[in-house]
Amino acid sequence: MDDLPSVGIRLLDDRLPGWGFPCWGSAGAAGLDLHACLDAPLTFGPGSPAVLIPAGFAVLIRDIRWCGFVFPRSGRGHRDGLVLGNGTGVIDADYEGPLMISAWNRGADPVRIEPGERIAQLVFTRIARPDLTILDADDTPSSARGAGGFGSSGR
């Protein structure tokens, strides 16, 4: 596709190529697998503070029409409670520092992460930055939707 940006990857951990990075898990996978660049296994208990785990590289998006989202891997989140401490990580086009994964254990048992284990995924997506218009507080909404406040649709 001609409209896709060229994204640079600066390797910060020499072990990544041996672990198969960079690769998508399948031909149809949306996310680029992110590995835990740890020197030793890490175990953390349920509800303990989130832990920052290096992904071992920096991503250079550089096209302001694009960004990256870091998501947990579905299986580990469902089975073991391994999710992201910040819900979803946002990688802005102008951020070129080391990629870190905020890992948190929301499960009932301790979670163990091995060096090189795939623990998250990076999804690239196009973004929109619309022109914003500041309105007066007394401007009437053009639809009734929202007039009843948060949760007013009853769903």
Automatic annotation (TrEMBL):
Pfam families: dUTPase (PF00692). It is an enzyme of class 3 (hydrolase). The keyword Hydrolase applies. It comes from Methylobacterium persicinum. This is dUTP diphosphatase. It catalyses: dUTP + H2O = dUMP + diphosphate + H(+). Belongs to the dUTPase family. InterPro entries: dUTPase, dUTPase-like, dUTPase-like_sf, dUTPase_trimeric. Keywords: Hydrolase, Nucleotide metabolism. GO terms for molecular function: dUTP diphosphatase activity. The lineage of its organism: Bacteria, Pseudomonadati, Pseudomonadota, Alphaproteobacteria, Hyphomicrobiales. Its EC number is 3.6.1.23. Residues 21-154 form the dUTPase-like domain. The keyword Hydrolase applies. Gene3D superfamilies: 2.70.40.10.
